[in-house]
Amino acid sequence: EVQLVESGGGLVKPGGSLRLSCAASGFTFSSYSMNWVRQAPGKGLEWVSSISSSSSYIYYADSVKGRFTISRDNAKNSLYLQMNSLRAEDTAVYYCARGFLTGIDYWGQGTLVTVSS
Amino acid sequence: QSALTQPASVSGSPGQSITISCTGTSSDVGGYNYVSWYQQHPGKAPKLMIYDVSNRPSGVSNRFSGSKSGNTASLTISGLQAEDEADYYCSSYTSSSRVFGGGTKLTVL
C-alpha cells in the first residue's frame, strides 16, 4: 500500500523557516517524480514544487521561487521542502504527492503550516 | 502560472449528468493533452479521477469522463450519486510546472 506521511508543520513567525519532510513507503520511491502541493484554509489547490526521480529536474511556482527548496533522499525514501522567508500567505496545508505520468496519483494527508506573529 | 478557470459551483439531482468546465490558455490546457481532474471531500486529500484529458486510473468509476476542446477541458459525471458531492479541481501539466483550477463545488440535490 502506497503511503505518504508528511511531518514538520507548525506555527512560525513571518520571516522564519521550516523544513517539511515526507516519508514514502509501499512503492519504489526512486522511480517516481514527487511534488509539494498546498491548500490555504478554505481555498483551492496550489502547486508548489516538483522534483524528478533522480533530482535532475526541479521546478517551483513563481510564488515560492527563491524562498523554498525541494530535495529528496532516495536512500531514505524521503522528500523534503525547506521553506525560508515565510510569509502569512504561505499558511496552508502542505501535501506531499506522487507524480503519475502527467497527473498526481497519491497524496499524503498533509501537514499544516501557519505563519503568524 | 495563472490559475485555470472553473465555475465556483454546479449542482444536479441523483441520476443526472453534470459537466464541469476548466478554461486555460494555449500555453497550458490548449497546448498539451495533460489535463487531470481531482476529487476532494471535506477534510480529505485529493483523489485523481482523470489524467491525460480522458484516462481513468484503475478503480475510478466509468461514470467519470474527461474531454478537451481548444483551451477548455471538461469533466462529466453521469448517473450522479450522493457520494459524488465534493470539490473538483482540474490541473494542467507542462514540462516545468503544474497549474490548478480554482475548484468547483458539486452539490447533489
Key terms:
heterodimer, A: 117 residues, mainly beta, 7-stranded mixed sheet, 4-stranded antiparallel sheet, 54% strand, B: mainly beta, 6-stranded mixed sheet, 3-stranded antiparallel sheet, 9 strands
Lay out the secondary structure.
The complex is a heterodimer of chains A (117) and B (109).
Chain A: E1 3-7, E2 10-12, E3 18-25, E4 34-39, E5 45-51, E6 58-60, E7 68-73, E8 78-83, E9 92-100, E10 103-107, E11 111-115
Parallel strand pairs in A: 2-11
Antiparallel strand pairs in A: 1-3, 3-8, 4-5, 4-9, 5-6, 7-8, 9-10, 9-11
Chain B: E1 9-12, E2 18-23, E3 35-40, E4 47-50, E5 64-69, E6 72-77, E7 86-93, E8 98-100, E9 104-108
Parallel strand pairs in B: 1-9
Antiparallel strand pairs in B: 2-6, 3-4, 3-7, 5-6, 7-8, 7-9
Tally of alpha and pi helices of chain A: 0
The largest β sheet of chain B comes out as: 6 strands, mixed
Radius of gyration of chain A: 13 Å
Oligomeric form of this entry? heterodimer
* Largest sheet: number of strands, sense, barrel closure of chain A: 7 strands, mixed
Number of helices of chain B: 0
The count of DSSP E runs of length 2 or more, i.e. the number of strands of chain B, is: 9
Describe the global form of chain A: globular
Mean pLDDT figure of chain B: 95
The string of secondary-structure elements of chain B, in order, is EEEEEEEEE
Strand content of chain B: 35-45%
Distance between the termini of chain B: 34 Å
Helix-residue proportion of chain A: under 10%
Helix content of chain B: under 10%
